[in-house]
Amino acid sequence: MLKNNLCQLLNIKYPILQGGMAWVATGELAAAVSNAGGLGIIGAGHAPPQIVEKDIKKAKSLTSKPFGVNIMLLSTYVEEVIDLVLLEGVPVVTTGAGNPGKYMEDFKKKGIKVIPVIASVALAKRLVRQGVDAVIAEGMEGGGHIGEITSMVLIPQVVEAVDVPVIGAGGIADGRGLVAALALGAEGVQMGTRFICAQECQAHSNYKQAVLNAKDRDTTVSGRSTGHPVRVIKNKLTRHFEKLEKEGVPKKELEEFGVGKLQSSVVEGDINMGSIMAGQSAGMVNKIEPAKDIIDQVISEAQKIMSSVFNENMIVSKEKS
Ligand code: TUI
Prior knowledge:
TIM Barrel; single chain; 14% strand
């Protein structure tokens, strides 16, 4: 029932993509999501190509299903990571934090499906003209680097503006979110935060626990003054960063202060002075469970909602007639 154009395009069973979260989305997580019928995505983030290569090889050893790599366009290693992805024949590339236009031709020549994350209608339209296969419209409820518009209003405007499949993201963590995104015209969803708490996710247990503990108002947007706003769980780091911003510390120093902070929370478990990137949906994530259980639950919840809406409509129309 939920197999649609997007599933056909990506050769997957369910229209669920796993966000390519830097340091969090390793080969193990990506393979588990792909094996469960979604599209697992390795997050290249700021990592050097040697680390990304290990993750690609790991994913290939654990699944025969398609998976993707997210290329973070602000990375100093962006060119090397792209060369690696071209060489390894990764079937799908998603991009984040920028405009992938200048790399399009290389990807297309290799038959790689390109799906950028966008946070505005203008960029979506520009990239569709350049030949992207689909777009991920991500609202500012999402974790990590974000734009300014909420999913509720971004998704329908992007759907209206482009003629490729739109994947909704930002604030989606369960079957209700999937149905809502479909109602807004999306053909699928990308979920990041919920998959942080997948059993197969290799993130430090402190990081996972911080997501489990988070309630509705526990995230904030840090770094607006640097031009690279990121949604993170509030902690000592975000309070300190705010203080530096108020003191008028120069942008360059603020940026340098942020370097390596995500790695220290995800890999080393420093949840006081590390950057705990997560979306507002952290308040809806309450359990560590296998990626397969997450996907199965999201799909069965969505199917239940859709059939109950359909049945109630039938009752209403029967009563009317
Ligand atoms: O990329 C993400 N999320 C990320 S990347 C990241 S690592 C990082 N490190 C230092 C500074 C900032 C980030 C952590 N989380 N999500 C995809 C995403 N892309 N969300 C929003 C965008 C986006 C925003 C503006 C894409 C394009 C864009 O416009 C660029 C342009 O040129 O118009």
